[in-house]
Amino acid sequence: MPYAGSGEISLYYEETGRGTPVLFVHEFAHDFRGWEMQVRYLSRFYRCITFNARGYPPSDVPERDDLYGQDLAVQDIGAVLDHLKLDRACIVGFSMGAGTALHFTMRHPERVLALVFVGGGTGGNPDSRDSFIAAARRNAQIFLDEGMGSATVQRMLSCDPTRIQLLHKDPRGFEEFRRQLAEHSAAGSALTMRNCQALRPPLSNFEAQLKATRVPTLIVAGDEDDPVIETSLFLKRTMPAAGLLVMPKTGHAVNLEEPAAFNASVHDFLVAVEQRLWREREAENGEPDKLDTQEQK
């Protein structure tokens, strides 16, 4: 099995296809398997790389709080790229993975050809942040006490108002999601929830860095994913090279609910970036800002 080292942690990864590398970063409630429909389509055109975050078998599951957190998750993206000897890649992140991918992009813009930010920003509303942190800590203890396959955890992570659309649209896909969720490590999920989800700062804290980030970015959200709508709008208004795609009657798991539309939109975006047709927002004087001139490799 292929592994990339990140400090003392080993991260499991898979790669399919040839061409420009596209690295996928998964959400909290899923793992690398959640990108299967994207890999099957996009690997016809690109070198698609998926990996499991620390705490998600078959990646290592350390049992210390200090071995989890936003900074380490960002480090892990770089570790996978370094292991594969990739100077630059397109990065697609979903939810927890979207936030991690965005932080990596802000810190290392020279390594990111293009960014797709999907369903990110939960917990970033200042009015509800304290309750979000308290719930994250409480949920982490439930994972440890009951396990990821318990009815309580399954209801919590698969049947909330932002998730239930998948059940209505694709019952088989919904059951697969629940089955794979039950296979996750309770310890890994709890430590990720406690140290990454609960402690990550809201993206609104990074307005200056976001304004300076000129990497071509596609922001994707479902219109029934209320916790991320405001963050998506904030990023669109703040990042000069960002575009926003909102999918109607769609919840959190956009890539699972509407795979055909999602795949086509991501493919169109990547082609536009490769052809240098993804323009930055027009400047205040009415003249277009310069095209992204990053050398494509």
Features:
297 residues, alpha/beta, Rossmann fold, eight-stranded mixed beta sheet, 12 helices, 8 strands, 43% helix, globular, disordered C terminus
Structure description:
- This protein is an alpha/beta fold and 297 residues long.
- It has a domain at 3-124 and 202-274: 3-Layer(aba) Sandwich (Rossmann fold), CATH 3.40.50.1820.
- It is 43% helix and 16% strand.
- It has helices at residues 36-42, 70-83, 96-107, 129-146, 151-158, 164-169, 171-182, 186-197, 207-211, 226-238, 254-257, 259-274; strands spanning 3-6, 9-16, 21-25, 47-51, 89-94, 112-118, 217-222, 242-247.
- The chain has an eight-stranded mixed beta sheet with strand order 1-2-4-3-5-6-7-8, sandwiched between helices.
- Strand 3 (21-25), helix 1 (36-42) and strand 4 form a beta-alpha-beta unit.
- The chain is globular, with a radius of gyration of 18 Å.
